[in-house]
Amino acid sequence: MAELIVYGIVLGSIISLGAIGLTLVYGIIRFANFAHGDLMSAGAYIALFITSVALPWTGLPHTTFGPFSFGWEMVIAFPVSMLIVGGVAIGLDQILYQKLRNKNSNAVIMAMSSLGASFIIRMIILILWGSDFFFYRPGVLRPAIEFPLGIKIRPDQILILFIVFLLITGLHLFLKMTKMGKAMRATADNMELAKVSGIDTEKIIIWTWCIGGALAAAGGILYGIDVQLHPAMGWNFLIPLFAATILGTIGNMYGALIGGLIIGISQQVSTAFIMPTYKPAVAFVIMILILLFRPKGLFSGGKE
Amino acid sequence: MTILTAKDIISGYTKVDILYNVNIKVEQGQIVSIIGPNGAGKSTLLKTIFGILKPRHGKVELKGEDITGLKPDKIVQKGISYVPQVDNVFPSLTIRENLEMGAFIRNDDYSGRIEDIYTLFPVLKDKSNQKASQLSGGQRQMVAMGRALMLDPGLLLLDEPSAGLAPRLVSMIFEKIIEINASGVAMIIVEQNAREALKMADHGYVLAMGKNVLDDTGEALLTSEEVGRLYLGG
Amino acid sequence: MEFAGILAYLVSLAIMAGIYAVFCLGLNIQWGYTGLFNIGIAGFFCIGAYTSAMITSPMPTGTYAHYVHQLFGLNLPFVFGLIGAASICGIVAFFIGFATLRLGDDYLAIATLGIAETFRLIFNNEQWLANGPRGLMGLPQPLAGLVDPKNYNYIYLVIVIVILILIYLLIEQAIRSPWGRVLRSIREDEISAAMSGKNVLRFKIQALVFGAMIMGVGGALYAHYTKAISPDVFTPLYGTFIIWVMLMAGGSGNNKGAILGAFLIWGMWIGTKFMTDLLPYTLKARAPYIRFLLIGILLEFILIYRPQGILGEEKKVSKLIE
Ligand SMILES: Nc1ncnc2c1ncn2[C@@H]1O[C@H](COP(=O)(O)OP(=O)(O)OP(=O)(O)O)[C@@H](O)[C@H]1O
Ligand SMILES: [Mg+2]
């Protein structure tokens, strides 16, 4: 059980990365981005492309990287993929959502557009890679480290927790300390007043997409490292992402973090009792319970 | 010198016109008060001047420059600031952060300006790191005005600064308004509290049903029988 | 292909388009007239199909029962299958609506999406329910004894078209009634509808249930056409996404548009298959993805450049009221 909880924290931290991006976007642009899960897939596959095609093509020799299951290529692929997906998210906004915004389309039309975008991303992945599973580590499986209570953890998993911690701390500092971060929070509070204050809200929206996309990419890659890559991985994350977002009160980044951990732990612990394939359903059931009994989430009340 | 003129403004929302040929004018250093019944279009006029709404007809000029149809973030750069009637603070930001947002377009060091605001509203200084959502109505109004003053505007638009405040706070806010004006900031103030608003006004406008009804010096309006009967309650 | 072959092909195409048109009509009630964002159509598709399949097929017996498990098998006529499918879908929709519609548009979307995925998981994993991933096969077809099996599709086409017309007339009737007017007023301006004393939540739930029941009928029609169903049929792509594109293309808020969209997009879908057949062999396996990619891009174009669809919304309000 203790081991399942630890695995749940690992999974939950990955969900949190996606959920934080989702909640930031929701807080500012006020629509449910159904493409967010597929941005995670995009990140994972772009990293796969970099590690398995682009860097080997340069002729540099492949070596392993510390005690981890992937090679040094990942050190480059990880940030580059985050940047690219941040750019993809901005691109989708500029090509699709911004046009709808300017036409005063309602939030549901934008959500529908993002649903379309999610299928477009998935189809591109399917066209390029097919529907097979992929791994970053062909054939390599590093031994797990034994901890007390019989908990076995792979070095990869410790690294995942560490990276998530770094990213979230970085985001926290960005939002609290920088002018742009503060303006993002201001815009989430009240976009009209932000405009009145002279804040260029279109620029804020671009930043939001970039951060949301980059975090989603990080989540997708980390999931790929922990488990595997599959074209439907992002889509399957969608329900857990929304569950975490709603659980943690929409628009609340710290809520999304906690929500992600709760969902991740519940999903892993549930495998002790029911088939692992039901993991998405577990997230769904938690979400429905929240909607019935505390629809504003656990952290409502901070904002009026 | 005339700072701002709005000429023959026709404006409103997507489906309806609210203002029909409204005219107002603000001279350097003046306080201009706009009074009128609920729904007269007072807020709509301020929003149109500030570029939140685009007029269907008419012209807004700032010191002779045509600023009609410019977006708020551009208007701010021209030296006009605006305090909306409702939702005029960022609730989850601290007071200091609220003020910083007012200075968003400044790239220089504006910490001195924040100190000026704290001198004007000393209560804010102690609560500097509290979230705006935790403040009382009067304090919020101060934060909102402070935010708008961060850019040291030449013209300040205030939409019902005294709305919903206890009488003691109302007079305090009006004192502050006079103090701000004394430092050289011209103002357009929309007020329900018509008597007080006219008392401090250099010039007053009465708006009803989206049209100019009367305009004169504040004093003249205050003593006008018609205004007294219709808008000052007796 | 000789003439008879082409004709048979066109008939099968028309049957599927007709079934999709039923879904579009159901979605049109929810989205076109009421503004409800249901992205779990596949869920209603799925339970409609399974319900009707189990109502109309007999319980497996003998050695067969070792290989095929199903919760029940009632061996009742087709009509009962339709009624059962519609009822179960209606009940599920009621619960979803009850849980989410008081909260806002996005919540309904997420919940319907979740329910669709969850149903698919359940049917995949629970052998006893409906034979797990292998699904149910050999489903009965109505009036199958009348003609040579080779010509049966003509009969089924007639059945689909008759049901489609009946549903169309039913919806047109409902939409022109005071009830339909309330739905549209909710979609246009929920707040003023509520202020004029309408119980907005109740009307929304009714519209969701009504639409879902029609989707249930669509699921049943599908099951008895293909005679075999399994969970992997009811994916978000075939079960939800393409139906949205059909409705948006034809014109939401317009029943004729919904039907037109279904035939048009299904025709395009099949048409692109001929195009991708020309692709080199290595790409062929991935041809369906290319086709779906095109459909996705088409949706984005519609949303940005022609959100009202081809026909646009039909004005049902008389000039006097305006
Ligand atoms: N966003 C909006 N869309 C449509 N109509 C609006 C909108 N905001 C205000 N109105 C209408 O415009 C008219 C004028 O409103 P406005 O807020 O300018 O009045 P006001 O003079 O400021 O009144 P108050 O004293 O109540 O603040 C009112 O009839 C109001 O209902
Ligand atoms: Mg007003």
Rg of chain B, nearest Å: 17 Å
Radius of gyration of chain A: 19 Å
CATH T-level fold name of chain B: Rossmann fold
What is the level-2 CATH architecture name of chain B?
3-Layer(aba) Sandwich
- Please give the most extensive interface between any two protein chains, plus how many residues each contributes: A-C, 42 and 41 residues
Mean pLDDT, all residues of chain B = 92
Strand order of the largest sheet of chain A: 1-2
In percent, how helical is the residue content of chain A? over 70%
| Distinct compounds present | adenosine-5'-triphosphate, magnesium ion
Shape annotation of chain B: globular
Instruction: Assign the CATH class of chain B.
Output: Alpha Beta
Q: Count every beta strand of chain B, where a strand is a DSSP E run of 2 or more residues.
A: 10
Number of helices of chain B: 10
Polypeptide structure, described:
The complex is a heterotrimer of chains A (304), B (234) and C (322). Chain A has 304 residues and is mainly α. Chain A has one domain (2-293): Orthogonal Bundle (ABC transporter involved in vitamin B12 uptake, BtuC), CATH 1.10.3470. Chain A has eleven helices and two strands, in the order H-H-H-H-E-E-H-H-H-H-H-H-H. Chain A has helices at residues 2-29, 36-57, 73-102, 107-129, 155-177, 179-189, 191-196, 201-226, 233-247, 253-270, 279-293; strands at 145-147, 151-153. In chain A, helix 2 (36-57) packs parallel to helix 4 (107-129) and helix 2 (36-57) crosses helix 9 (233-247). Chain B has a single domain, classed as Rossmann fold. Chain B has ten helices and ten strands. The N and C termini of chain B lie far apart (35 Å). Chain C has one domain. The model of chain C is unreliable at 318-322 (pLDDT under 50). Chain C has helices at residues 3-33, 41-56, 64-67, 78-100, 105-125, 127-130, 152-176, 178-188, 190-195, 200-226, 236-250, 255-276, 281-284, 287-305. The interface between A and C is large, with 42 and 41 residues. The complex binds adenosine-5'-triphosphate (ATP) and magnesium ion.
